[in-house]
Amino acid sequence: MIRRPIIGIVGNNYLMNEEYPVHASGQMNCAVISEVMNCIPLIIPSNPMYSSIDELMHICDGFLFTGAQPNVHPEEYGHHPTEAYGKFDRDRDRVALPLIRKCVQAGQPVFGVCRGFQEFNVAMGGTLHPEIRDIPGRDNHRMPPDGTLEEKFALRHKIDLQIGGVFERILKSNSIMVNSLHGQGILEAGPRIMIEGWAPDKTPEAINITEAKGFALAVQWHPEWNAKEDPVSRPLFEEFSKAAYRWQDDIVKI
Ligand SMILES: [Mn+2]
Fold this sequence. Notes:
By secondary structure, this protein is an alpha/beta fold. It has helices spanning 27-35, 53-59, 90-106, 115-123, 149-152, 166-171, 233-253, and strands at 6-10, 12-16, 20-24, 40-44, 62-65, 110-113, 127-129, 157-161, 175-178, 185-188, 193-198, 204-209, 216-219.
């Protein structure tokens, strides 16, 4: 092996201090790739002009689709934007959605978190709801508006996992506790989206893409928080890591 696997982090585009444009990703994403996965984190500037999807797949061995404040643009799933949808990051949409589709087809490992989870669903033909707490019977899944990071990322609700599913196999349990920092959620699951985890109010929180050739899981919560110690986060990232090492081995053999 020449080097450890590289995990591309699909970066966010935003205005620092509301005026200076930057490409960025949270440091927790890099830390989990380095410290739990034993892989190399590489933040990708999400702009389709800079690199093709094939070039990104050649550079990296797997991809992490992280959380972010801007939502996937509703035109990507045939809905009209309203103020309820908040801010957008069209360049990330244009990189993330085709990258998910192509990786799933190729078997290159992909893991989605929060916005990444929503990107998986949209990439596979599903739709999103801009504010799930407005759906009758649903809870508020947003983070507390105030407080420390520890309070914002604290465990908030249970998830029931599908018995016999991929998540249950990895986590060796069908009931787990997770944090919750999302306003959006899945409205209709795409045809190949297998929902394997539900919050107590039936909001989908863990998905697997059926008939994907490789590792293709996504979660609505933020497993990068406290990933070294958390009994749910750690096995998920370890499994993602194994998939990236396997992918790299296979590529080297070719
Ligand atoms: Mn939640």
